Amino acid sequence: MAWNEPGNGKNKDPWGGRGDQGPPDLDEVVRKVQDKLGGLFGGGRSGGSSGGGGGGAKAGFAGLGLVLGIALLVWLFSGIYIVDEGTRGVVLRFGKFVEATEPGPHWRIPYPVDRVEIVNVEQRRFIEIGYRSSNGGQSALKVPREALMLTEDENIVNVQLAVQYQVEDPRRYLFNVREPDAVLKQVAESVLREVVGKNKMDFVLKEGRAEVVSKVKSGMQEILSDYEAGLRVSDVNLQDAQPPEEVQGAFSDAIKAREDRVRLTNEAEAYANEVIPKARGAAARRLQEATGYKESLIARASGEASRFSQLAAEYNKAPEVTRKRLYLETMEEVLTATNKVLIDSGDSSNLMYLPIDQLIKQGREVRDTRSGSSVDNSSTQSGMPDLTRPSARPTRESR
Questions:
Q1: C-beta atoms surrounding 386 within 10 Å
Q2: 240 beta partners
Q3: Which of 100, 260, 235, 250 is nearest to 174 (CA)?
Q4: Strand, helix or coil at 99?
């Protein structure tokens, strides 16, 4: 007969003679739990004496009150919370805004009555339009759907914009707009497209970059203020603005041509700035020379007229003397400009030639060798007169 067949004894277990163990009795478990709770609060089994039952009931109520008091204190202390520096606490009572708290320790009615939302108001958040930065900002992934925009002159530009913003009002940030960060991105893209669409391509790509940034920033802030989104735009940066990749080669050639034009224009202006003052100075100098020449001619003519009038008066007084003096002065002036003189001897047909140029040259050489000596001494020592002086040059009187 097998060990587990009916009718065998209780000690037929081949693993130690243990008897069968069924599942635990549920009533027994409940009874044990009741006994433990009754012992905790000072109560006893219902089979006890009446006097002992009354004392146990009082002790049970006292223990229950103590536990409830401790639980109440713990619940009240759970309402203490601390708001860190740079953040704000928004207290909600059954989901309704109650107050906004500053940094420091605070108390609110514990859960589930009050709830606190902590909002960072000093954190600089940013969004990107037209690109997505990756690898710590070292590289950027282009997003053509956001970057390509149409200008006023019907050209397409590729614009990449970065916007930095902060939470200005925690209450408005949490309650007035659903997903305020996504709303700000949509506002930035909308305002950027509007500004680019109202300006020409050259303006957006070159001299108008600063103005585009300023208009985008002011336009975004105006719309966010109308929405009461509780956000403040702190900075807007135009990361890049280029024509589409398909036309960048032609656009680069156009830029180079424009730069060459500007360079040549600057060179021409520099040359003009250099030449024009010189020309004006030369013109002014010539005008002054002409004016001086005119004044000198006028003065000379006036002097000649005055001299002629004086000579006429002297001639009327002594005609012969004045005529001879005029002849001598004229011959002196004529002979001063010549270096050859022919003298008629008067009693023969031969003419005497006087080499004045050789005499003058010889006199100069003598003066050069005897520096410091007077002209008269050098002339005497050379044995000939100093013909460089007008008074020493020979004259010829007509018969």
A1: 20
A2: 160
A3: 100
A4: strand
Mean pLDDT by 10 residues, the chain (399 residues): 48 48 60 61 48 57 78 82 85 85 84 85 89 71 88 89 91 88 92 92 86 93 92 91 79 83 93 92 93 92 89 84 85 75 64 69 78 48 45 40
Which residue's structure tokens are 């103005």?
A: 211
What token pair was written down for 120? Answer: 């960072």
Compute CA distances 193 → 99, 152, 159, 181, 382, whole Å. 39, 11, 9, 19, 105
Residue 186 CA, distance from chain mean position? 28
Query: What angle, rounded to 10 degrees, do the helices at 50-77 and 26-40 form?
Result: 80
How many beta carbons lie within 10 A of that of residue 97, not counting itself?
14
Is the whole model's pTM more than 0.90, yes or no? no
Please report, to the nearest 10 degrees, the dihedral formed by the alpha carbons of residues 334, 335, 336, 339 taken in order: 130
Rounded-to-integer distance, Cα 93 and Cα 180, Å = 22
| CB hemisphere CA count around 287 (13 angstroms) | 6
